[in-house]
Amino acid sequence: MWLTEFDTPVLPRESVHEDARRAGDPRGLALKLRGVAKSFGARHVLKDLDLAIAPGEFVALVGRSGCGKSTLLRLIAGLDTPTAGLVEAGTADERRLMFQDARLLPWKRVVDNVALGLAGPEASARAMEALGQVGLAGRGGDWPSTLSGGQRQRVALARALVHRPRLLLLDEPLGALDALTRLEMHRLIEQLWRRHGFTALLVTHDVAEAVALADRVLLVDRGGIALDAAVSLPRPRSRAAPGFAELEDRVLRHIVGHAPTAA
Ligand SMILES: Nc1ncnc2c1ncn2[C@@H]1O[C@H](COP(=O)(O)OP(=O)(O)OP(=O)(O)O)[C@@H](O)[C@H]1O
């Protein structure tokens, strides 16, 4: 059984994350975007976009290819600046990014990849702890080339977690993985989110993935947020659960119903 490793919840349902949210003192970062526009020359990708995300929320961005999801994520990550408007998303230290490609340094062992950017005598111990949290305890001494694609993405996740981010930005992190590995990663990301209480923003092409993981699914279209769908299904979510397919279908219909953004 490939899912058993992550089948047991790390925490009971009353997680630290939910306690923190209730207490109004979450570790997650609040995001606020007001009147945000982004153009590349004459190509107006985002137009007057407003968005508020509460601390500790898990939000997914979906939409047609080229609609501006990654552009929006990059603005929030501070990797690019808006043409107009305001982006409030904490400091660079509070944010971490994960991409489709794990971007590991092949000449460094796994533990040293995770410890990159950490200083002090505890760096290795913290990296090993983070590797344990992603199910890779014992692989720290290995070379990245000896890992599977899914394991590399786990290392990338550990490399983000080791900095104890308040905001985790995920740009199609599971896009290159097979279906079963994706399901394992969904479970893992959800458990880590519940345990650590960070705010999560996931860009994905996979509407089912968005519904499985997010509190809110946002559809980016025509330069703005065309749909903001709350997902209140109990966690961990099964695609067979009542309401799952209906919500997935609703979001898909919205995507199909909107014309492609002018490219
Ligand atoms: N640096 C850039 N220079 C010029 N155009 C850009 C740049 N970055 C993005 N674009 C354009 O902005 C639009 C939105 O791109 P973006 O990557 O945000 O879309 P996306 O929704 O993430 O797409 P996909 O789902 O295919 O990854 C596209 O038309 C793209 O060509």
Q: What string gives the helices and strands in order? A: HHEEEHEEHHHEHEHEEH
Write down how many β-strands occur, each being a DSSP E stretch of 2 or more residues. Answer: 9
Distance between the termini: 45 Å
- By CATH, the topology of the largest domain is Rossmann fold
Whole-angstrom Rg: 18 Å
Q: Count up the helices.
A: 9
Tertiary shape = globular
Q: How many domains is the backbone divided into? A: 2
The CATH architecture of the largest domain = 3-Layer(aba) Sandwich
Strand content: 15-25%
Assign a percent range to the helix content. Answer: 25-40%
Which CATH class of the largest domain applies here? Alpha Beta
Main pleated sheet: 6 strands, mixed
State the strand order across the main sheet: 5-6-7-3-8-9
Q: Report the average pLDDT across residues.
A: 88
CATH superfamily of the largest domain: P-loop containing nucleotide triphosphate hydrolases
Structural class: alpha/beta
Bound molecules: adenosine-5'-triphosphate
Low-confidence stretches: 1-17
Pfam families: ABC_tran
Family: Belongs to the ABC transporter superfamily.
Protein name: ATP-binding cassette domain-containing protein
GO molecular function: ATP binding; ATP hydrolysis activity
